[in-house]
Amino acid sequence: MTKFAIITGVSRGLGEGLAKLFLESGVHVIGISRTNNNKLPKIAEENNQIYKHFSCNLSAPDEVDDTFEQLKDFVFIPELTEVFLINNAAAVEPMDQAMNIKKEDLVNHIHVNMIAPMLITNSFLNEANKHEHVQAIAVEVTSGAGKRPIFGWSTYCSTKAGINLYTETVALEQEELNTGNKVIAFNPGVMDTQMQETIRSMDKDAFLDVERYRKLKAENQLNSPVDVASVLIDILNDEGVINGKLYNITDYL
């Protein structure tokens, strides 16, 4: 049995935590990010697993397509029995009143948060469905911001809401086609990551709720990325994982 996990945003935070735990549990990892993670090759070696990194600018659709074309033959080998895709990479900026957001920043955000995960998932499922013996599960990392408006987060809320409905729609298609493959969304909650540092640095005029996030850090209420990664891996290892479901970390931690 050979298993692979393809993870975007693997250089730090939740992506790094997922890669570490997958490697330690006997799953080969393909990492996709602009910069490599120097810790993961050593972890892979210690656990006799494969770690391979592909550098990719997720805001460039052609580069996203080219990257998947490069990695698919590396992953979809005859021995493959199970493969996971975790679309973890995301941008929170620009954070500002919608009327102040520049066109370039808006377009870049939508490419990273919405277009890239959709492109990768589409290619992933297309390839998986050519291999009948392979079980494939795609995970779209979402946010509670996809279900409610937040002052200063018009781009982030909108892209996460879009990813939620994309997940449900593609899951429905896989169900109707009886492929056996699944697509789920996962809300990791508020984690102690570099993204949170960026959020806490914002001016209140741009992000009205900034004090709430500063308080979460001050009161040590941020989840560890490794703890959150452990929950997601447990979900994926459960044979009863529900196609199209939005899983929330608050139900587990």
From TrEMBL:
Q: Which domain of life is it from?
A: Bacteria
Q: One short Pfam family name for this protein?
A: adh_short
Cell location: Cytoplasm
Keywords of this protein's UniProt record, alphabetized?
Cytoplasm, NADP, Oxidoreductase
Query: Is the Protein biosynthesis keyword given for this protein?
Result: no
Its main localization is cytoplasm
> Which family, according to the similarity comment?
Belongs to the short-chain dehydrogenases/reductases (SDR) family.
Protein name listed in UniProt: Short-chain dehydrogenase
